[in-house]
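Subgroup meeting minutes
Present: P.N., E.W., G.H.
Scribe: E.W.

1. P.N. recapped why we're keeping a running log of single-chain structure predictions: easier to compare across weeks, and new members can see raw inputs and outputs side by side.
2. G.H. added today's entry (185 aa).
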Amino acid sequence: MLDAVEAVGAAVWAVRGWLLLALAVVAAGGTGVRAWWLRRAREALRERCAVALVPAAGFDPSREEIGRHAVRLARIPASAGWMPRRSVGVRVRLVTEEGQLAYRLEGPSTAAALLRMPSFTDVDVADPDAGMSAVVPRIRFDGVPPLPRDEDQNEDQNEDQDQDQDQDGDGDGDGDGDGDGDGVA
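Output recorded in log:
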């Protein structure tokens, strides 16, 4: 009976040895995978892509445009592929340069095409590293005045109405009172 107990004890020690060896291999493998994953995250964070969205002066997005933009931003982590979670997040920054507001998006370089897609009609997409000078200026034609804003149109209409009213009541609009329209009394 004593030989059977010693045989079981020897078997337990043998199994413990194999279990300890297996545990050491799994721990070393897990440590290696963890180190690889962290290195991959650091590389992905180092290679992030950034774009600046510069709105026009009259930029006023609708709720639909804002919703489409939010959905597009939510798709960026999925489009980045199998990457560490902390490296696929999208960072949004609001900055001003030269008096212009810029909405800066930063995300994984694997999703650069998605970041560079314009989602608003009155917004220019620019490279933030080149500064605001990379923004394509609006087209202006020589000799043609710019279109007036809504406020300017209202003021011009009020001035035109004041000028069209006849000052002297004779209906010719020249203000001399004789009704012939020549402006000489």
